[in-house]
Amino acid sequence: xxxxxxxxxxxxxxxxxxxxxxxxKNYLFDCGQFQGPWHIEKRNYEPVGIDAHNVDAIFLSHGxxxxxxxxxxxxxxxxxxxxxxxxxxKDIAMLIMMxxxxxxxxxxxxxxxxxxxxxxxxxxxxxxxxxVWHCHELFSRVVEYGDKIxxxxxxxxxLHAVDAGHVLGSCQIYLEYRPRKGRPxxxxxxxxxxxxxxxxxxxxAPPEKGVDVLIMESTYGDxxxxxxxxxxDEFREAVVSTVERGGTVLIPTFALERAQEILFHLExxxxxxxxSEEIPVFLNSPLAINLTRVFEKxxxxxxxxxKDMINKGLSPFMFPGLQFTDTVEESKMIxxxxxxxxxxxxxGMITGGRIKHHLKHNLWKEDAxxxxxxxxAKNTLGRKLIEGxxxxxIFGEEIxxxxxxxxxxxxxxxxxxxxxxxxxxxxxxxxxxxxHGEPETLKRLKRSIxxxxxxTEVIIPDFKGQYPI
Length: 469
Prior knowledge:
- By secondary structure, the protein is of the alpha/beta class.
- It has 14 helices and 22 strands.
- Helix content is 31%, strand content 21%.
- The chain is globular, with a radius of gyration of 22 Å.
């Protein structure tokens, strides 16, 4: 009997990795890094839960680190089979994994220097840039939306993917297993589902009929997002008011999708004269800069308005005052540029990256504004800011929080509660596994779904729990 084992994103919003076993063959839906506080991140250094040599394929839903970030680790341990994903996801994942390898090495060098006098040896990096390069040749099975691909002839397993509307190239993955005896089984892995009606990416495709097993993300399963138009207005107000008082706007951004979406709105603001063309906007993230170029390469996967702009030779990500600051030296020079100015930098949850340096220089200033435009996991610096901590520790130094903190939930690339319930209803599966959510969120969403799908078995899987399907 086929089974699912949940090796990540079980009772947490990170580390997506779900193992499907069919007649001795092992397939992974995603293989992501755990991100957040150390008690979560330390799982990256624990055994994945399966011998890498025994993994027959990886089905990658999209290129976020919490979905692809342990693939180089598996490669280091002996994985050498195919990775299935869309063409944009292939390019995005390679960039994100290479950036991760660089950051892991930097962190190791810093810890080794810091702990040397204490006689403590820090853990070696999770993987190296060489491990990432060895991944490249495994991305041999690119999947266009709608194409049906035979994964394994021995057990009659086929795959097709449709748009998830989450980030560029993201997909929902369908697997159809046809046993020699008995009825076929259709498994749908939602990946991360978008909320729809966003610039840059298309709306998510609705689930197809005839789903037997659904593995569905639940990030915002207990709440609704603010209307997108209202969130855009709130963002514009926060930027304009800060610029008018001569302050600095700091935007912690996820390098994939969120950074490009913010650039899109800043370009619209400058075109409409809401802020002067002379106001400098710094995209201070090498990864976000490279990913922005990927968007222009794979623009056919974007929404129609963006495709029209690029077909006319216009870039939605270039406008007066925008500066791509790639190097460390350029990053440091931003501090000497007089305000008003706008800075976009990672990481999105302020767990590391250049945004921490900019916060150290500006968080204590009353004329500055920090605009939070993405999900903030528990115990991260970003969560502490939105929860109203009066002081926070950055690089070992206590910094007073005098800047205005603005939280905008409507920019989320994840579906809200109503959308998730509707998605589950349309799929109408026999078995529904809720993943990629915090414990209380999962429980609330389960109750809501049971109210509309009383015949569906709704399961909140345990970490490393195994379930027959």
